[in-house]
Amino acid sequence: MSAEGCQSLARVYAVEATAFVLHCTAVLTDKAIEANGTAGSPHMGAPGGGSSAVFGPDGRRLTEPLGVEEEGIIYADLDLDEISRIKMFAHCTGHYSRPDLMWLSVDNNAKSLVRPTGAPPVKGDENARSGRQD
């Protein structure tokens, strides 16, 4: 996957989880390519690969980018109060929630892991064949 693709996924994860994300990658050197015997290979065949970054809970990049062949230490000062601010903006149980349309429920009934086609339901698993009827 490309550096942009990997960073995009890390950014999306930060927003979805409302969390700080440390996206870490390794830099592949000519010496490593020679040692691995991967020269010219589509995987690990060219130097580079560095795209480490820190993303905030709103998806913003909090670190300066390093070059793709540059090794270094990245760091960021994290304001943990930012998590609460972002959660207030778009939190699933906040003022935009619709408990009349969507909710989380837990079914405490025992379930079997394997359900052969046409087999009768396991005791305590009455919805196994017919589907849930909530």
Automatic annotation (TrEMBL):
EC number annotated for this UniProt entry: 3.5.5.1
Record field: catalytic activity: a nitrile + 2 H2O = a carboxylate + NH4(+)
UniProt keywords, alphabetically: Hydrolase
Pfam families (alphabetical): CN_hydrolase
Xref: InterPro entries: C-N_Hydrolase, C-N_Hydrolase_sf, Nitrilases_CHs
Keyword Hydrolase: yes
Ranges where the CN hydrolase domain occurs: 1-80
MF-aspect GO terms: nitrilase activity
Signal sequence extent: none
Keyword GTP-binding: no
Origin superkingdom: Eukaryota
Region (Disordered): 39-61, 112-134
Biased composition range(s): Basic and acidic residues: 123-134
PANTHER family, per database record: ARYLACETONITRILASE (PTHR46044:SF14), NITRILASE (PTHR46044)
Membership in a protein family: Belongs to the carbon-nitrogen hydrolase superfamily. Nitrilase family.
Record protein name field: nitrilase
Annotated organism of origin: Diaporthe helianthi
